[in-house]
Amino acid sequence: MLGLGTAAAQGSDRLSVPAMPPLPALASAPASGFQxxxxxxxxxxxxxxxxxxxxxxxxxxxxxxxxGAPVKAGQPLVSFDCNESEARLKMARAENxxxxxxxxxxxRLHKLKAAGDLExxxxxxxxxxxxxxxxxxQAQLAHCVVRAPFDGRVVKVHVKPHQGxxxxxxxxxxxxxxxxxxxxxxxxxxxxxITIGMPIEVDILxxxxxxxxxxxxxxxxxxxxxxxxxxxxxxxxxxxxxxxxMSGIARLPTAAAKE
Length: 259
Fold this sequence. Notes:
This protein is of the alpha+beta class.
C-alpha cells in the first residue's frame, strides 16, 4: 500500500502542468470625443441642395453634367428633343393670326349691322384662346432645357444621353458652393445654455482638423422620443477641403466655461 501511494504521488508530480504566465494588461484605449459628455455628432451640409426633375415627357438630346463638375447659375445641364413642342407653338401662332383676322372682319361687319354682338364676342374669345395656347406652348418649350438654379457642383447624374424620361423623373442632383452649414442634435437638457451666435468647436473626422463655428438656428420643437434639439451652425471660414457629407464631433461649451 505504501508503494502504491508513493508511485501515485510520483505520477502526480510528473503530470503536473506548469502555471501559465500572467496575461499582459490590455492597454486602455485613449479617450475619444465620443466619451466627452459635451461631444455631439455633427454633419456638414450645403446651404442649398436640390434634385432637378423632368417637367415634360421627352428624349434627352444633350447632357452637360458630370460627377463633381462645377456649374454656374443658368447653365444648361439637360436638353430635350422638343420638335413637337416647337411645331405646336407655330400652330398656335397661326391660329392666333387667323383669329385676329376673323375678329377684324366681324368688327367691320358689326359696324355695317351685318354681324351681331354675339358673333363679335365669339371672335374675340377665339383670339384670347389662341393667345393662351401660345403661352402654353412657350411654357412647354421653356422646360425643354433644364438649367442650374444656382452656382454649385454636380453630386449625382440619374440619366444618360438619348434616354427617354417621364414627368417627374430625377435628372441631376446639385449642391451649392460656398460656406457649409453644420447640423447636429444636442441633448435637450442643454437647451438653457444654447444661444444664437454661441461658438462651438468642431473636429472633422475626414480632415483631422478643428474648426470654429457659431450656432445660427435652433429648432422650435424638441424630439420627445430622443430628447434632443436640432441645431444648425455656420463656420467662421469656408476651407476648401471641407465637403458636404463629412462628419465629426462638436463640443458645446459648458455652463461653467461660459461663466
